[in-house]
Amino acid sequence: MKLLISDRISAYHRYVIAHEQLYNCSTPEQFTVVAGKLIEDFLENQLIHKELKHYNDTRTLLKEHPIFEEQEIRARIYSLTLPELVARRNASKKSLRAIKSKLKDSKATSAQKARREKIKWVREMEIQFIDERLNQTK
Question: For residue range 41-65, what is the model confidence (pLDDT) as tens digits?
Fold first, then answer.
């Protein structure tokens, strides 16, 4: 919960800064970039607000924010033995290569592309945590 609150404060401050920068944009390109940041930070803030409100109302976690998925992946990786880590890393890298090539498929629907982007994110996260874990065992 502390991480969520910290992230919410950071997202809010980034939102306020982007909102101020919006008035100083001199080109449409600058406006597009700043507006994109503003919207991203607003949505992040709203997602965290939803998590915190749900927790405040029910004293249970909603777990829709990506931070919970990261924690779950990290816990799963840190519970593996060294041989399992190596096997999982190889499988994740192979899966990531396949997903990256499928993302280049222009015939895929937007839903398929979104699902593949999500899987790509998870695989990259797994590889990052596995490498982190393997470096700790050296």
Answer: 999 899 999 999 999 999 998 888 8
Question: How far from each other are the two terminal CA atoms of the chain, in whole angstroms?
Answer: 32
The residue whose two tokens read 């990261």 is 70
* Residue the block writes with tokens 């997602």: 47
In 3D space, the residue among 49, 67, 51, 71 whose CA is nearest the CA of residue 59 turns out to be 51
- For the beta carbon of residue 44, count every other beta carbon within 10 angstroms: 19
Structure tokens that stand for 85 in this block: 């880590």
- Contact (CB, 8 A) for 11 and 48: yes
Cβ 89 vs Cβ 75: under 8 Å: no
Closest CA to 18 of 53, 43, 52: 43
Model's pTM, two decimal places?
Answer: 0.65
Residue 69 corresponds to which tokens in the numbers above?
Answer: 């998925």
Whole-angstrom distance, CA of residue 80 vs CA of residue 60:
28
Residues 6 or more apart from 125 whose CB is under 8 A from it?
70, 73
The confidence score (pLDDT) of residue 114 equals 83
